Amino acid sequence: MIKVSGQGGQIQFDGQYVTITRKGFLARATIGKGEKRLHVSQIAAVQWKAAGPMVNGFIQFTMPGGNERRSAFGSQTSNAAKDENSVIFTKKQQPEFEKLRAALDAAVAAQHTPQASSGTAPSLADELVKLNTLREQGILSDTEFEQQKARLLAQ
Fold first, then answer.
1. Residue among 126, 129, 97 nearest 5 (CA)
2. Are 39 and 13 in contact (CB under 8 A)?
């Protein structure tokens, strides 16, 4: 479980869900108090702007089909402060947000990577059962069944 606090918002990531929570006056004045929960499968991208000595940084979550627009130079952080999918952070808070970003990048990448159905090849016994079922259904003749069985056993 990763928990980070930024300016006007907190983010919690449990490996599956990103929860953005807003409390207090600053939250009420910008976006509004409350909580937004996103499953990693809903996140298409994680946008990042590092904090500098004079400016804050931000982390922003992009969803497929979201209405995005590019901020003009010099107004990226102020625009992110008005976005419900963003949390602003200071230079001092940045190391914790970098850990969150790394965990989210890994989780989003894993979510969008095709997974093998079971991770292992079917066993010989499973293959023989399938062949027998095909023979019983009349899809394979007895001769075809014996040929495929011999092929499997020769491997």
1. 97
2. no
Q: How far apart are CA 131 and CA 124, in angstroms?
A: 11
- For residue 23 the two structure tokens come to 């409390």
Mapped onto helix, strand or coil, the DSSP state of residue 128 is: helix
What is the pLDDT averaged over residues 130-153? Answer: 83
**Fold that domain 2-111 belongs to in CATH:** PH-domain like (2.30.29)
How confident is the model over 52-88, as pLDDT tens digits?
988 899 998 888 765 555 555 555 655 656 678 888 8
Please check whether residue 84 is in contact with residue 36, taking contact to mean a CB–CB distance below 8 angstroms. yes
The structural domains of the chain, with segments of one domain joined by +, span: 2-111, 124-154
Beta strands in the chain (DSSP E): 2-5, 10-13, 17-22, 34-39, 45-49, 57-62, 86-89
- CA pair distance 99, 15, nearest whole angstrom: 13
pLDDT band at 137 (very low <50, low <70, confident <90, very high): confident
Which residues, 6+ apart, have CB-to-CB distance to 97 below 8 Å? Answer: 4, 6, 57, 59, 87, 89
